[in-house]
Amino acid sequence: MKKLTITAVLILLTTLIIVVVITFSPKKIHINTQGIKYRLGTEHLKSEEPVNVKIEGKLYKSISGKRRFAGTIDIEGEKIPVPADQRKLNIPITSDGWGAISYPYFVYRKEDGVTVGSHTYQYGSLVINNDFTKVSILVSDQNQINDNGGVAWNAENGQMITVPASSRSEAIRISNEIMELFLKGYTLK
Q: Which of 7, 91, 167, 177 is deepest in the core (most CB within 10 A)?
């Protein structure tokens, strides 16, 4: 009887350890697929362009349930004014799947390599589904500055990139699906 109890406890502990390890081990993210870049609003129905998106990194989950993506996001044709060796992202993901795509970077003096300043480039925001298989990127308009000095995006005519998608209508359907909590009842068009 004692052997049976010890065996049962060991099996239970082993199972618990396996579940904890699987649940809290970082999930490798490897997305390299076509998406659609488009502008929201019914007056922009023809604004769709296929674009290749590559996302590499890991999705971490803490015991408290908080998620964080660490890795890189490369979007075909996008000019990111950040040195290539400083484009590693660390994005906390909210409970509704949202995170800011911000690139903190340093500027060095070429002659001696001394740091002369630090900057942050705000590309936009990322919204993901639970298993990081569907992604919408809300691209900030770098030419518009809002009241707090930051770059702007809005749900009426903002620029979006959604993967995987092969058409604007599919991209908007996916965005509305994964952004439901973030949009709080608003529907993208």
A: 91
